Amino acid sequence: xxxxxxxxxxxxxxxxxxxxxxxxxxxxxxxxxxxxxxxxxxxxxxxxxxxxxxxxxxxxxxxxxxxxxxxxxxxxxxxxxxxxxxxxxxxxxxxxxxxxxxxxxxxxxxxxxxxxxxxxxxxxxxxxxxxxxxxxxxxxxxxxxxxxxxxxxxxxxxxxxxxxxxxxxxxxxxxxxxxxxxxxxxxxxxxxxxxxxxxxxxxxxxxxxxxxxxxxxxxxxxxxxxxxxxxxxxxxxxxxxxxxxxxxxxxxxxxxxxxxxxxxxxxxxxxxxxxxxxxxxxxxxxxxxxxxxxxxxxxxxxxxxxxxxxxxxxxxxxxxxxxxxxxxxxxxxxxxxxxxxxxxxxxxxxxxxxxxxxxxxxxxxxxxxxxxxxxxxxxxxxxxxxxxxxxxxxxxxxxxxxxxxxxxxxxxxxxxxxxxxxxxxxxxxxxxxxxxxxxxxxxxxxxxxxxxxxxxxxxxxxxxxxxxxxxxxxxxxxxxxxxxxxxxxxxxxxxxxxxxxxxxxxxxxxxxxxxxx
Length: 517
Known about the structure:
The chain is an alpha+beta fold. It has 13 helices and 14 strands.
């Protein structure tokens, strides 16, 4: 029997705090990543707004140049670069700087003496879309995890001065421009690494760093605690195995009911007793001393152990508390530490005694095959009354047992019983009279009991038919017949054998009668 689970700490493969640490790990790692991804969108929007503002500045500068500067220069008869050419040169200068802003002005209708503009897919798409709707800038956002690039394309719309100039210029590839036509595209490109925006959030970054450090420290601490708990659980498992082996050995010295009540905490291991009404059973083997002289010690030990083993199985099946083995005798009682009521305890005691007698008949048949000449016969006494039950002894060594005159009476009833019979007191008979058939014997006087005692010899249970187990031994006879175990085929064969035995006995009796005369 193992130590009760309630006495051993529960072994947990991982503490709850360690599971919490595992949940915190992705939170700690995911927070800066989430911030990183969230900053990509506002960074792109800010870059787009910045590109649009730059484009508007270029447009305003070109308009001012065309309307204010260029007109005044022409009035004085001076030549000046065209607004578009000025914008192109300005964009080249800005783009030549190693900065984050690039400006490019291009058209798919360049002047003949000017080099053509290489146009990529975005720029071609921007030309087509702006000529369809010049009011909506074309925007493209691209980049990687570490940087973002925003391209904003706005239209270069032909004004009256531009139309007059382009339609009359000899190098113009197109002579039918109208006011409002899209001559080309002004593209502003802004490229900026994400960290440039992230490092502006210094307080947030400091907070993330502190949270990450605390989280990692917590995870490390929980990892150490988990390792410590696993080590402690390993030691507890070893202690549990050791206690289990020890308890299994102790269980062999105690009745299971007593063992369970002690290890569950229902009873304390202290010198104490209480008065209870019990049914006591005392059994003893007839002529055991003579049997010890006939058998070798090894054979006697094996026979006695087999007898006690089978009787103990029956006792535990009926709920008896095995008090002790005294030589060849057994002391058992019902009613403590577990009880089903005084009447049921008494009935269980009588049923147990009858089952023990039937089992002894089977054992005798087995032992006779092994060479035991004389069968074992057991006397049994049963009494019901008040006894003191509990721990008796000293602080260093105690025994869980019963004391009292009623326990002594069960032993006296066993002493007056015939071999193979069960004697019960009137107190027990009054409780079981409805389930047993018993015959009253003459009253007897028992030492230690002031009143006359009326013993009853138990025949059988009232609900069990008389034809049950038939057993007996004599010179030349070894009979064990369990009628309830026979089926139709074996019953016929048994009848044939018994009739054959009766015929042989009649023949033997007929042969011996003349010699007797």
